[in-house]
Automatic annotation (TrEMBL):
The lineage of its organism: Bacteria, Pseudomonadati, Pseudomonadota, Alphaproteobacteria, Rhodobacterales. It comes from Pseudooceanicola atlanticus. This is Flagellar biosynthesis protein FliQ. InterPro entries: Bac_export_3. Its main location: membrane. It holds the Pfam family Bac_export_3. One of its GO terms (cellular component) is plasma membrane.
Length: 89
């Protein structure tokens, strides 16, 4: 196993993690910003107002994005297992 192969595997892994987590993180950020603006405009400082909509949005996006996450992780594992099977790792 060469250094360049290790670097390629690690860069593919980091890219897969970013792609798999991006939809959930983007929605959590957007919902959090929307709720923060709403609280700033209305002067409502209710703690459950920040958590409940964000959790619900994350759950819905997780349901929708599960095929994307699966495809990304499966593609990475297929590449690594192919490298193992070919004897290069």
């Amino acid at each position: 196993m060469t250094e360049s192969l290790t670097y390629d595997i690690m860069s593919n892994m980091f890219l897969a993690v970013l792609i798999a987590s991006a939809p959930i993180l983007v929605v959590a950020l957007a919902v959090g910003l929307f709720i923060a603006f709403f609280q700033a405009l209305t002067q409502i400082q209710e703690m459950t107002l920040t958590f409940v909509p964000k959790i619900a949005a994350i759950f819905l996006v997780l349901l929708v994005a599960t095929p994307l996450i699966y495809t990304t992780v499966k593609g990475l594992s297929d590449r690594v297992f192919d490298l193992i099977a070919s004897g290069t790792v």
